[in-house]
Write a structure and sequence with these properties.
heterodimer, A: 122 residues, four-stranded antiparallel beta sheet, B: 108 residues, seven-stranded mixed beta sheet
Chain lengths: 122, 108
């Protein structure tokens, strides 16, 4: 069974840093790209970042580019998100989600973690 | 950046109703369109991929259609567990995904 478990959320002051982790199990982690997707309180879903299985391809949403760093440790089946220069508008539940070529046809986020809440406030 | 617009933003319906949610892309995305369901306090769940293909384990009352810029998600006969928020997502510019703003389906 595919399982994704985020951790590392919490309360941080504006300008501060936080590091999120996502522990993966139940699948061959290094064969899949992984995403971070966030959801501000009462709002919709916003894609944040993607990293390929080999870490060769990395992409960020414009809203976090230059402040967030995605990485992975395939030996530990772990996905990471280093968040720097945090702003109030980064307050959200952060989900890790597996990227998969579903049905051999199209990429989609086919498995999600339960999310971890990041609150940026003084 | 491809923009995704859903309509309506919210919808009230009764158990047994047939419901349709629309999603429009700002440019042609062929059939690179996914639908997700999200219940309160839970992570999203993939329902439909490639505009019309049902993800494994998803009930057949869910269906999707469309191509190009206009897409629809249809629930043929609403069940109590279907009251949730639904999101479309374009995968044309993968992995730079964008989501629609969501459609909240509520009980009438």
């Amino acid at each position: 069974e595919v399982q994704l478990l985020e951790s590392g959320g919490g309360l941080v002051e504006p300008g501060g840093s936080l590091r999120l982790s996502c522990a993966a199990s139940g699948f061959n982690f290094n064969s899949y790209g992984m995403n971070w997707v966030r959801q501000a309180p009462g709002k919709g879903l916003e894609w944040v970042s993607f990293i390929s299985g080999s870490s060769r391809n990395i992409h960020y949403a414009d809203s976090v580019k230059g402040r967030f760093i995605i990485s992975r440790d395939n030996a530990k089946n772990s996905l990471l998100l280093q968040m720097n220069s945090l702003r109030a508008e980064d307050t959200a539940v952060y989900y890790c989600a597996r990227d998969n070529l579903v049905g051999g046809v199209l990429a989609a986020a086919d498995h999600w973690g339960q999310g971890t809440l990041v609150t940026v406030s003084s | 950046e491809i923009q995704m617009t859903q309509s309506p933003s919210s919808l009230s319906a009764s158990v047994g109703d047939r419901v349709t949610i629309a999603c429009r892309a700002s440019q042609n995305i062929d059939n690179y369109l996914n639908w997700y369901q999200q219940k309160p306090g839970k992570a999203p769940n993939l329902l439909i991929y490639a505009a019309s293909r049902l993800q494994s384990g998803v009930p057949s009352r869910f269906s999707g259609s469309g191509s190009g810029t206009d897409f629809t998600l249809t629930i043929s006969s609403l069940q109590p567990e279907d009251f949730a928020t639904y999101y479309c997502q374009q995968a044309y510019s993968t992995p730079l995904y964008t989501f629609g703003q969501g459609t909240k389906l509520e009980i009438k």
